[in-house]
């Protein structure tokens, strides 16, 4: 609908420079420039390399998104940006760019939470989020179970990993198997040809006295590494496909078991799964199976919307506009440990009004020189 908020979203919390444009819950553009190849030889994301790549990719990616969406920057109703959590230097590039564009164009600025954005993105795929929704967010940086009754104001942490993130475990196991980085997609592929029951790897934090909704993947990762070492020490061949399948099964078994249990305990009948690991084919299949058995509706966005992207930030920004949430102030700062309970960083309502004259002036300049 034409009267729904048109919002541009910027995401730079890790190694993806993402810029998306949405109108309400409709995706118009999703431009992503990734620096993942630059990190591959280090086996993980190098913050300084990521920041520099964001800086180089920012303006071209914004231009590309606007072009893809077929809209003019002056028609935007707001600019949203990931304010945290994430890598401090990387976040700073996005926040600075968002401020510059918002200020120059005279648009409200919305600093939003990366995790809430991962949940909200599903509106672009499956329409308005049911309230409440349980969300399982699994990526290289996070593994959390979150319960939300209103994605703009109420996100409650149910549980999280106490050590490695699920994606991190995939990446580390892939490194031990010499499969390259990132490890998730390649383990997923190898696992399809392996036996998930070949090796009984441990399921972390699943004992009767363990925290019901927290995760732990570090013990699993070590168990896999030891198992492989022992094989190699004995001069035996490592059955890569069986290791991949058995490891993957251990991860997704725990993730789905705990997510379904949280839904049941809280009486929530919608589960969404987001983050890069949501692309995992076995996770999707097992979640579907277990949700069906428990009478829970499963919502998983398409893989491109599950990994870090700007559309998810725009989606949450549009929801902030639609629900009349306060815009952020011009002194919005990147917060690498922004609490998950803060879906956005509202301002005190002063700086926007004060700088109005300045906006209008800059707006004229920008119209003539930048966006004509
Ligand atoms: O959300 P994302 O793009 O970035 C953040 O970490 O925030 O997630 C990347 C993570 C990596 O750890 C990668 O190995 C994992 O998601 N991943 C997968 C799959 N595709 C990506 N893990 C398991 N199976 C996959 N198919
Ligand atoms: Zn993420």
TrEMBL record:
Q: Name one Pfam family in it.
A: TsaD
| Cofactor(s) essential for the protein | Fe(2+)
Q: Which reactions are catalysed by this chain? A: L-threonylcarbamoyladenylate + adenosine(37) in tRNA = N(6)-L-threonylcarbamoyladenosine(37) in tRNA + AMP + H(+)
Annotated cofactor note:
Binds 1 Fe(2+) ion per subunit.
User: Organism's domain of life?
Assistant: Bacteria
Alphabetically ordered keywords of this record: Acyltransferase, Cytoplasm, Iron, Metal-binding, Transferase, tRNA processing
Task: Give the matching CDD domains.
Answer: ASKHA_NBD_TsaD_bac
List each copy of the Gcp-like domain by range.
27-314
- In which compartments does the protein localize? Cytoplasm
Q: Where is this region: Disordered?
A: 334-372
Name the major location.
cytoplasm
Binding residue positions for substrate: 137-141, 171, 184, 188, 280
What Enzyme Commission number does this protein have?
Answer: 2.3.1.234
For this protein, the record's PROSITE patterns field holds:
GLYCOPROTEASE
Tell me the residue numbers annotated for binding Fe cation. Answer: 114, 118, 308
Q: Where is the composition biased (Basic and acidic residues)?
A: 354-372
Q: Which GO terms describe its molecular function?
A: tRNA N(6)-L-threonylcarbamoyladenine synthase activity
Q: Which family does it belong to?
A: Belongs to the KAE1 / TsaD family.
Q: Which HAMAP family does this one have?
A: TsaD
Role summary: Required for the formation of a threonylcarbamoyl group on adenosine at position 37 (t(6)A37) in tRNAs that read codons beginning with adenine. Is involved in the transfer of the threonylcarbamoyl moiety of threonylcarbamoyl-AMP (TC-AMP) to the N6 group of A37, together with TsaE and TsaB. TsaD likely plays a direct catalytic role in this reaction.
Identification of the protein by name: tRNA N6-adenosine threonylcarbamoyltransferase
**Which gene name does the record give?**
tsaD
């Amino acid at each position: 609908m034409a009267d729904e908020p048109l919002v541009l979203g910027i995401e730079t919390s890790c190694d993806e420079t993402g810029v998306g444009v949405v109108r309400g819950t409709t995706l118009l553009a999703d431009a992503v420039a990734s620096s993942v190849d630059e990190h591959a030889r280090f086996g993980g994301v190098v913050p300084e390399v990521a920041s520099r790549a964001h800086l180089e990719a920012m303006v071209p990616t914004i231009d590309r998104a606007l072009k893809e969406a077929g809209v003019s920057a002056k028609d935007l109703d707001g600019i949203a940006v990931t304010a945290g959590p994430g890598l401090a230097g990387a976040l700073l590039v996005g926040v600075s760019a968002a401020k510059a564009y918002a200020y120059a164009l005279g648009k409200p600025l919305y600093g939003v939470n990366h995790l809430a954005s991962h949940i909200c993105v599903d509106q672009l795929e499956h329409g308005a989020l049911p309230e409440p929704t349980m969300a399982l967010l699994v990526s290289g940086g996070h593994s959390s179970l979150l319960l939300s009754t209103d994605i703009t104001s109420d996100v409650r942490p149910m549980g999280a990993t106490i050590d490695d993130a699920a994606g991190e475990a995939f990446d580390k196991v892939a490194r031990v198997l010499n499969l390259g980085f990132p490890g998730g997609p390649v383990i997923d592929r190898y696992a399809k040809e392996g036996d998930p029951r070949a090796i009984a790897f441990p399921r972390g934090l699943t004992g009767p006295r363990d925290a019901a909704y927290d995760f732990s993947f570090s013990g699993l990762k070590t168990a896999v590494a030891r198992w492989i070492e022992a094989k190699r020490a004995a001069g035996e061949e490592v059955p890569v496909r069986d290791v991949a399948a058995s490891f993957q099964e251990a991860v997704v078994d725990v993730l789905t078991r705990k997510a379904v249990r949280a839904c049941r305990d809280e009486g929530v009948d919608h589960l969404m799964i987001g983050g890069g690991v949501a692309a995992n084919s076995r996770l999707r299949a097992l979640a579907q199976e277990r949700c069906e058995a428990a009478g829970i509706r499963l919502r998983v966005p398409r893989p491109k919307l599950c990994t870090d992207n700007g559309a998810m930030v725009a989606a949450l920004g549009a929801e902030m506009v639609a629900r009349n949430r306060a815009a952020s102030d011009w002194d919005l700062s990147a917060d690498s440990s922004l609490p998950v309970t803060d879906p956005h960083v509202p301002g005190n309502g002063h700086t926007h009004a004060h700088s109005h004259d300045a906006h209008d002036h800059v707006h004229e300049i920008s119209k003539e020189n930048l966006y004509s």
